[in-house]
Design goal:
By secondary structure, this protein is α/β, with parallel strands linked by helices. The chain is built from 19 helices and eleven strands. The strands form two sheets. A nine-stranded mixed β-sheet has the order 5-4-6-7-3-8-9-10-11. Strands 1-2 form a two-stranded antiparallel sheet. Strand 9 and strand 10 form a beta hairpin. Helix 1 packs across helix 5 and helix 6 packs antiparallel against helix 7. It is elongated.
Length: 511
């Protein structure tokens, strides 16, 4: 590569020499192959169908060849014959015939082709040359901006990552797969599900009724969990992450764009210890509460939960971090809190809706690439608040905020609905709704939709199975009654009971 030496001199200081690389070579191209491919397209009837997914007009280095290929695409779209005469006529209609060298040049292209047998191989070489030119142009732009001291380096890195991701996405192609290996893979999934307790083919959440409908969170699925503010989105995924990591030893990664890692862990401690958050925050605990805290948080130590609290996380940073977590810690599930706080910096969009669409598509692509479920929280718009009646307050797919692409890209959309929040205390049958939360599965690409009821303990920011939430008097009777097991905790998890909760100590019960 040729190099230019730039001297920066000053009458009062020593001369500094900076070596700046320059592009002194011809860009990658294959003119002869471009001619061969265009000629073959006009000679072979089915040639275009072979290369239509490989090439686009900008892949050709010669401008005249781009115009000719555009004319061929026009004919293909209209399902018209593609040959020397029709291409010439189409160029004439477009007003491009003289620019490409007239009918004589078109005739020359066809005369240079002996066979179209290797057109696909030739087309792939042309596509590779185009990709190389794209990378050269991209790197030159980044290099130029890197020398500009007015450009923020962090912003430049975001732009570079975004542009590189855009180039890679435009050129990703996946061939069709014969059905036999796919059948074998599907059978393995069924066999593994049969071996699991409860027949789950995916990752268990610890919420039994939810797992029955979903069969667990499935690999490569994008799951959207949406709700209005104060419905408990973060509490739900924290309860779920704790169940998965502690009860089932499933490594989980949590990307928190809203809370710091310390705030998030504080909420996990409230969840696990079942001590009200305001008391933990103030630190004003009774001795039995300190004992309860120390005992309960032991289950969080060494739990495979990985927290990243990078603010304003871009989808490109997420890809890098997610790949590393899967590779180094075998993470099986990624949770993002929440989608609307993400960005796609480094790429230009006409609106926020287009940016959110790009983010949701990227999350679905990442889930497929890593072959793990990705769970993203999402806000709902204010339409819910404006509707009247008990049914009117139930979220709908149309309430998803900022982009219809979220609904389109997601494999599953779940809403969290707590009637109690809207002062709805009884259902139509007169049953109490206090402390109840509904998980509304509104979209399920690979299964049934339906509603799941859970118990929500607001003082602990905790979601739990209905059957796990025993009333206090029932707990006391189990803990102190005749022949009662001393290992039944308030949360319903079967684990050893600390001394201060054992029979004979009921005066010290933390209630």
């Amino acid at each position: 590569m040729a190099e230019r030496i730039k001297n920066i001199s000053s009458s009062r200081s020593k001369t500094k020499t900076v070596i700046v690389p320059e592009m002194g070579r011809m860009q990658p191209q294959a003119r002869e192959l471009e001619e061969a491919v265009l000629g073959a397209l006009m000679l072979e009837k089915d040639a275009y169908s072979i290369i239509s997914e490989i090439l686009k007009p900008e892949c050709f280095y010669e401008h005249a060849h781009q115009l000719i290929f555009e004319a061929i695409v026009d004919l293909a779209v209209q399902q018209l014959p593609i040959d020397m005469m029709t291409v010439t006529e189409q160029l004439r209609k477009r007003g491009d015939l003289d620019q490409v060298g007239g009918a004589y040049y078109i005739a020359q292209l066809t005369s240079k082709v002996a066979s179209s047998a290797h057109i696909e191989y030739h087309a792939r070489i042309i596509a590779q040359k185009y990709l190389a030119r794209e990378l050269i142009s991209f790197s030159a732009q980044i290099q130029s901006k890197a020398f500009d001291e007015t450009v923020d380096v962090d912003d430049l890195m975001q732009e570079a990552e975004g542009k590189l991701f855009e180039i890679s996405q435009r050129n990703v192609k996946k061939d069709a797969t014969q059905i036999n290996p796919v059948i074998n893979e599907a059978l393995k999934v069924i066999e593994n599900a049969a071996k699991q307790e409860g027949g789950l083919s995916g990752l268990a959440t610890g919420f039994h009724d939810l797992d029955k409908i979903t069969s667990g969170w499935q690999k490569s699925d994008l799951v959207i969990i949406a709700a209005r503010p104060a419905m408990g989105k973060t509490a739900f995924v924290l309860s779920m992450a704790k169940n998965m990591a502690v009860n089932f030893n499933i490594p989980v990664a949590l990307f928190s764009l809203e809370m710091s890692n310390v705030q998030l862990v504080n909420r996990l401690m409230v969840n696990a210890s079942e001590i009200p958050g305001d008391k933990l925050k103030s630190g004003r605990l009774e001795q039995y509460e300190w004992d309860q805290l120390n005992f309960k948080i032991k289950e969080l130590y060494d739990a495979p939960i990985y927290i990243d609290d990078t603010p304003s996380l871009s989808v490109f940073e997420l890809r890098t971090k997610a790949r590393r977590l899967v590779r180094e810690h075998q993470v099986k599930c990624i949770i993002i809190d929440y989608l609307q706080l993400m960005n796609a910096s480094g790429m230009n969009f006409g609106s926020r809706e287009q940016e959110v669409s790009m983010i949701s598509r990227s999350l679905k692509g990442l889930a497929k690439e890593l072959d793990i479920p990705i769970i993203a929280l999402s806000q709902l718009n204010r339409g819910v608040e404006n509707r009247q009646g008990a049914e009117g307050k139930r979220p709908q797919l149309a309430d998803l905020r900022e982009s219809g692409a979220i609904e389109q890209d997601a494999d599953m959309v779940c809403f969290i609905h707590r009637p109690e929040y809207y002062k709805i205390k009884e259902d139509e049958h007169g049953n109490s709704l206090l402390g109840l939360a509904e998980i509304i599965i509104a979209k399920h690409r690979n299964g049934a939709v339906g509603d799941v009821r859970l118990r929500f303990r607001s003082e602990f920011a905790k979601f739990m199975n209905i059957e796990d939430d025993l009333p206090i008097h029932e707990f006391r009777s189990k803990a102190t009654g005749d022949g009662a097991s001393a290992s039944v905790p308030a949360s319903g998890n079967m684990e050893p009971m600390p001394d201060f909760l054992k029979p004979g100590k009921e005066e010290d019960l933390p209630y």
